[in-house]
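Attaching the record inline, Q. Sequence:
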Amino acid sequence: MKSLLAPLVFMATGTVVAADLTSQPTLTLDGAKSIAASAITYARSKNAPGGAIAIVDAGGTLVYLERLDGTFLNASDISVGKARTAALFGKPTRVFEDLVNKGRYAMLGVPAVAPFTPLQGGVPIAVAGKVVGAVGVSGAASAAQDDEIASAAAGAFEKAQAGKVSFVPRTQVDEGFRRDATLVSDAGYRVNASRRNGPGEAEVHLADTDIFYVIEGSATFVTGGEVVEPRNVSATEIRGRQLSGGEERHLAKGDVITIPSGVPHWFKEVSAPFTYYVVKDAG
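Structure, as predicted:
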């Protein structure tokens, strides 16, 4: 089955540390079309008189738009505005309509989104806890039905993505090792294709257990001990210049090592190229 989400990969040069890069699932055209199809199927099951369905990506850029026969002309623009507002704020647009109805008219002057559309019918789409886009519907029997159709389409897509078997072809894996990329990202784990050209900083991951499987190269790897000159790079990660103390191991092709959350670790020496899979388990 063709993936309806594609990884967004960033390039880096020099010595690369996997934690320096993130991968954001990106909604594909096929994925957007499937969301629109779900919306249309649901709308027809509820005898909706028409409707325009807009699908945008996480940045609010229009990916796909479909307008049913009999829908008023401006419904297309309104559906895009709803979808874009939902994606960029990460909230259903019914939240903003409710705020305006309660007297917070300052919301109407929000400059961050053009057009900012505080009308219900826009719903964000999240996969593995990350917003990948949004669906906006306009032109159904009522504003409430716009929201109902959008919610049903978003929910169907999210349900289809949950627990889906992930297959990454070799060409994408090879490219992943070249760019140090995330191959698979799910709610509780992710798989990285990682590459090192030299030693790195000491690290402590407070929320993730790391599992390394070495593909090629060798390294002197230290676990335990104390982080020298520690600093917090996020709420769940500490880094430092090196480790003081700890246990040294020689890692080579075929080796597997597991580093539980909270355990300091450090690539002290690396024979490049050193490539390895990293499975990060947040469970």
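The CA atoms of residues 53 and 66 lie 5 Å apart. The domain at 26-161 is CATH 3.30.450.150 (Beta-Lactamase).

More tomorrow.
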